[in-house]
Design brief:
With 95 residues, the chain is mostly helical. Helix content is 68%, strand content 0%.
Amino acid sequence: MKIRTAAVSGVICAVTLALAGQAAPAGAASSADTCSQAVAQTKQDLQNVGAPTSATNWQAVRADAQRFLDSHPWGGSGTAALKRDIAELDRLCAP
């Protein structure tokens, strides 16, 4: 019974991650024009993949996005969106 429960939990987790990865369209491009827009977009994309953040400054939001990417190396549309978000944060917010 324990093995069956673990298998069901693993399947549920895999389905949840697959659905979270589909939350952001695969070809969606970031349209941020300002640092604050890039931060808002990144926070939304983190929410979409099931990793909401309460961070308020761009460095902390970027760090949360990078941590998510580091812990999800297999990719997907959600991670692709976060990679774009990090590039936008670097472009718009970094000194």
